[in-house]
Amino acid sequence: MSITSKLFAESLLPRRPSSSSSCKCAVLIGIIFITVLLLMPAPAQAQRRRFLMRQREKQILDIVLSNTTYDNRIRPSPLLNSTTGETQVYVNLLIRSVSKIDDFAMEYSVQLLLREEWYDDRLKFESFRSSQASTSDFPPYLTIVDTKRVWMPDIFFINEKEGRLHGIIKPNEYVRIYPDGNVLFSVRISLVLACPMDLQFFPMDEQTCRIAMASYGLTTEDIVFHWKVEEPVQVPNLTLPRFNLQAVKTYKDDRTTNTGTYSTLKADFVLRRNFSYYMTQLYIPCIMLVIVSQVSFYIDENAVPARTALGITTLLTMATQSASINRSLPPVSYTKSVDVWSGVCLIFVFAALIEFAFVNYYNRFDKRTKKLWIEEHGHEPPPPEGCGWLSRRYPSKSKRIDVCSRVIFPILFIIFNICYWSVCLTAKF
Asked: In the chain, how many domains are there?
């Protein structure tokens, strides 16, 4: 084989890399890796800290909630899990919405966040802080979504009619455990609560709806509830149907039964009814109906069909208006201010119809008298003499009744309005 052929064959064979070239490649890769680490140190370290913190939280929860050191059947107390000494629980409410205030059923629907705070020395994990390399990596609190793992106060709502817990998408509740042993429990609840109402001055009334909470089975020797000192009841941007919130009052009112004394908390919501709706839907229509019924005094007494139709129509409309008012209110044993208003307006409308009955009677009586006089004397009767100006101006008795009614009815209605609004507005304010 020629030299040229050998060289060509050797060129086709693969060459082995030298040891010096492989070392250079390894050094280059290391330099690139170190450069990348130097360029991105913070995210990597932060991610590692977050991972270590999650692991640390799991280890702490496993220790403090272990069956050997913690029993959620035993209530916490200042005396290291002994059965003496009251557990102090501080309560806070956040009112999210009030969807309905029902006058007929005397109840209201509310959605709220119930928050309870207490101290449990068994759940302290402050001692774990000293073993950490960095205090900034120590968790500020531990969150548990399975609230059954810790002891819970047996609070319940005294005036509850219906209630439910929210569970979409997960149960809306959690427990936070702080390093010093303080525990926070928060839960979202929707309730229908009883609200006894005094409707004597409806619709210019002021009602007090209450939220009452108490311990169900533990007496004041075991547990004591307190309102949180700062903002015990929070009502941010709360809008109420047909009412304005005037004030929120919180206080303690322990109740005693034959089984013991139980710690009780109460929050009173002072509500004033919006009057503008009832002014446009009730009072103004009633005033208009009364005025329309008195228009018949200006219609000729001989227009019997017109005056009869007007009187009956206004009377039926007024009766329907009164029935629609009472349909939305419960039957009570006392008279409401709206009953006085609708009743008096109905009397005025009915009186206008009765007035036309008298006018029609005297109109027919005057016609018969005039006819008999003409048949007997052959001419119309002379105008009355020696009577008042009204009789001289209006010889017909039916006409005089209409003229007097035009003055008497409006004056009486104005006097009634002055008395009614003076009493109601004085009681309201």
From this structure: 2
- Residue 220 near residue 236, CB atoms below 8 Å: no
The verdict on 226 and 285 lying in the same domain is: no
User: What does each C-alpha distance from 186 to 91, 102, 239 come to in angstroms?
Assistant: 10, 28, 23
Tokens encoding 172: 């809306």
Residues 116 and 222 grouped into a single domain = yes
Q: Sign of dihedral through CA atoms 193, 196, 201, 205?
A: negative
CA atoms of 222 and 263, how far apart (whole Å): 10
Please choose, from the candidates 117, 135, 115, the residue with its C-alpha nearest in 3D space to the C-alpha of residue 126. 135
The alpha-carbon radius of gyration of the chain (Å, integer) is 43
Run of H or E residues at 227: strand 223-227
Per-residue buried b or exposed e for 267-305, using 16+ beta carbons within 10 Å of the residue's own CB: bbbebbbebeebeeebbeebeebbebbbebbeeebeeee
Tell me the pLDDT tens digit for each residue of 234-285.
998 888 878 999 999 999 999 999 999 999 999 999 999 998 889 998 999 9
* Structural domain span for residue 357: 277-428
Q: What is the pLDDT of residues 152-163, one digit of tens each?
A: 999 999 999 999
Chain centroid to CA 345: how far? 34
Q: Strands 206-215, 155-157: parallel, antiparallel or unpaired by DSSP? A: antiparallel
Distance CA 232, CA 246 (A): 16
Distance set, CA 223 to CA 154, 220, 315, 416 (Å):
9, 5, 63, 57
Q: How far apart are CA 338 and CA 200, in angstroms?
A: 9
Q: Three-class SS of residue 81?
A: coil
CATH at 293: 1.20.58.390
Q: For residues 420 and 387, state if they share a domain.
A: yes
Q: How far is CA 192 from the centre of its chain?
A: 10
How many CB atoms lie under 10 A from the CB of residue 64? 19
The reply to whether 93 and 238 lie within a common domain is yes
| Amino acid identity for residue 159 in this structure | N
CA angle 90, 93, 94 (to 5 degrees): 145
Question: In this structure, what token pair is assigned to residue 134?
Answer: 């960095």
* Look-up of token digits 């206004």: 314
Are residues 409 and 396 part of one domain? yes
Q: Does the predicted TM-score (pTM) go above 0.85?
A: no
Cα distance between residue 248 and residue 266, in whole Å: 10
pLDDT band of residue 18 (cuts 50, 70, 90) is: very low
